[in-house]
Design a protein that fits this description.
This is G-protein coupled receptors family 1 profile domain-containing protein. The chain crosses the membrane at residues 25-50, 62-91, 103-122, 143-160, 204-227, 239-262, 274-296. Keywords: G-protein coupled receptor, Membrane, Olfaction, Receptor, Sensory transduction, Transducer, Transmembrane, Transmembrane helix. It is a multi-pass membrane protein. The chain is mainly α and 314 residues long. The chain has one domain (13-302): Rhopdopsin 7-helix transmembrane proteins. It is 74% helix and 3% strand. It contains 12 helices and 3 strands; from the N terminus they run βαααβααααβααααα. Strands 2-1-3 form a 3-stranded mixed β-sheet. The radius of gyration is 21 Å and the shape is globular.
Length: 314
C-alpha cells in the first residue's frame, strides 16, 4: 500500500513517498543504489585503513583524502540504509526528529564535502606550483586547522535548518515527496509563510557552493598553467591524467548540486522524478566515485592494497 493511503501513526511522523510515479520500480532502483553504497563503504574504509597503517602516506594529500572518506561514509550512511528500507521494505514512516537529524547530516556533510574538495585542490596547487615549499606550507597543524574550519563551517551554517523547521506548524499533508528528508521537500509541508526560511537555505547553499567552486576552478587553472610549462611531456601527461580524473569527480558533484539548486529556485516545471533522481545522484555518486578516483588511481594506495592482498594469499 502506498504512503498516500496510510494513516499517520503519530503527529510526529512523516511519510516518505520515494520517487513519485516510479513506485513500481522501487525494488529495481534499489539494486544499483545498494551496489554503489557497498562500493562506497568498502572503498572509503579501505582508504582509511591503508593511510592509518602506512606511515609514508601521512602526507597532506592523503590526510585530506581521509577527511573526504569520513565525510562520504557519513553522507552515504545517513541516506542509503533508510532509502533501501523504503525501496525494499516499504518503510515509509520516519519520525519527525529522525527526519530533522537526517536533514542536518545531509546538508552539513554536503557542505563539508565541498570544503574538502577545495582543500584537496589547494593541496594539489601547492604540490605542483610550489613543490619545494609544499611541506612547509601544508604542515600537519595547518591541515588540522583547515579540516576543523571545514567541519565548523558545515555545522554552523546548517544547524539552523532543523531548528527552523522544528518551530514550524504542519497542518497540511505529512507526505514528503522524496526519498529522504530534503530541506525544501519538508518546508513545503508547513502551513505558514516559509519565504524567509527558504531564502536562508538557498542563500547559504549558493554562497558556499559558488565560493568553493570558484576557488577550485582558479586552483586548477593555475595547476594546468604550471603543468603545460613542465619540460617533460611524460610528466605533463601524467599530471593531466591525475587532474582530469579529479576534475571529473568535482564536476559530477557540482553539476548535480547546481541542477538541484536551480530546480528549487526556477525549475517549477521540472518533472519531480527527474529532480528526485538527480538529487539522489548528487548524494550517492561522489561517495561511490571518490575512493575509485582518489584511491585506486593513486599508486601508493593501490600498491599497498595489492601487497596486502598478496601477503594474505601467500
Amino acid at each position: 500500500m502506498g504512503p498516500a493511503n496510510k494513516s499517520q501513526t503519530s503527529p510526529d511522523t512523516f511519510l516518505l513517498m520515494g520517487i513519485p510515479g516510479l513506485e513500481h520500480l522501487h525494488v529495481w532502483i534499489g539494486v544499483p543504489f545498494c551496489s554503489m553504497y557497498v562500493v562506497a563503504v568498502v572503498g572509503n574504509v579501505t582508504i582509511l585503513a591503508v593511510v592509518r597503517a602506512e606511515q609514508s602516506l601521512h602526507e597532506p594529500m592523503f590526510l585530506f583524502l581521509c577527511m573526504l572518506s569520513v565525510t562520504d561514509l557519513v553522507l552515504s550512511t545517513s541516506t542509503l540504509p533508510r532509502m533501501l528500507c523504503l525501496f525494499w521494505l516499504g518503510a515509509h514512516d520516519i519520525a519527525f526528529d529522525a527526519c530533522l537529524t537526517q536533514m542536518f547530516f545531509i546538508h552539513s556533510f554536503t557542505a563539508m564535502e565541498s570544503g574538502f574538495f577545495l582543500s584537496m585542490a589547494i593541496d594539489r596547487y601547492v604540490a605542483i606550483c610550489h613543490p619545494l615549499r609544499h611541506s612547509t606550507i601544508l604542515t600537519h597543524t595547518r591541515i588540522a586547522k583547515m579540516g576543523a574550519s571545514v567541519v565548523l563551517r558545515g555545522v554552523a551554517f546548517f544547524s539552523p535548518h532543523p531548528m527552523l523547521l522544528s518551530q514550524l506548524p504542519y497542518c497540511r499533508t505529512r507526505i514528503i515527496a522524496h526519498t529522504y528528508c530534503e530541506f525544501m521537500a519538508v518546508v513545503k509541508l508547513a502551513c505558514v509563510d516559509t519565504g524567509p526560511t527558504k531564502r536562508y537555505s538557498l542563500s547559504v547553499a549558493s554562497v558556499i557552493g559558488s565560493c568553493d567552486g570558484l576557488f577550485i576552478a582558479v586552483s586548477y587553472v593555475l595547476i594546468l598553467r604550471a603543468v603545460f610549462r613542465l619540460p617533460s611531456r611524460e610528466a605533463s601527461l601524467k599530471a593531466l591524467g591525475t587532474c582530469g580524473s579529479h576534475v571529473c569527480v568535482i564536476l559530477v558533484f557540482y553539476s548535480t548540486a547546481v541542477f538541484t539548486f536551480l530546480t528549487h529556485r526556477f525549475g517549477h516545471n521540472v518533472a519531480p522524478q527527474i529532480h528526485i533522481f538527480i538529487a539522489n545522484i548528487y548524494l550517492l555518486v561522489p561517495p561511490f566515485l571518490n575512493p575509485i578516483v582518489y584511491g585506486i588511481r593513486t599508486k601508493k594506495i593501490r600498491d599497498h592494497v595489492l601487497n596486502s592482498l598478496m601477503v594474505k594469499v601467500a
